[in-house]
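During the first year of the project, the team set up a workflow for recording each protein of interest as an amino acid sequence followed immediately by a discrete structure-token representation. This format lets reviewers and collaborators read both layers of information side by side without switching files. As required by the reporting guidelines, we include two representative entries from the current panel. The first entry is reproduced here exactly as it appears in our internal archive.
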Amino acid sequence: MADMSPLLRRRPAPHERLVTLIGKPDCHLCDDARLVVDKVCGELGVPWEEKDITRDQGLYDEYWEQIPVVLVDGCQHTFWRVDERRLRKELTE
């Protein structure tokens, strides 16, 4: 499938996607990001999860300067501030 034209690849339906919010407790930017992720994913029917960098050394080592970080299907989508329109577009187009 790697050599298949991007035009021929089937885009996953929203319910087949996964959004991951990486943050930590007592982080106001993480709280803001959680609201946006919850709203967009809730409206689109996209499952999402939250991971705490204080409980995962690998995530801490990779993302501690960027939190909150949003991954879509395991790939970094954004960090610090989550733009609702941009996240919605990523999940629907």
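The second entry, processed by the same pipeline in the following quarter, appears below.
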Amino acid sequence: MKIKFFSRANCPLCVEGLQTLKLVQEDVPFEIDVIDIEQNDRIHEKYMLMIPVVEKDGVVIQYGNLDYATLMEQLGS
């Protein structure tokens, strides 16, 4: 399973979110594709007010303040 993690540089909430996602990764096997939204205008426009954003199979499963329980529920099934 491959998970997309949308973020950008100098985003403390993104750093915290990636740490939370990596904690889930210790219990559920998946790859994390970290995407810098500032490298693509379309993605930047779509997610600039939402980051960090976690996407699975093209569907946003959580954004903003990420929490372990929600991510585990969505990724563990």
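For the second entry, the following points were noted during internal review. The longest strand covers residues 2-7. The mean pLDDT is 95. Both points are flagged for discussion at the upcoming steering committee meeting.
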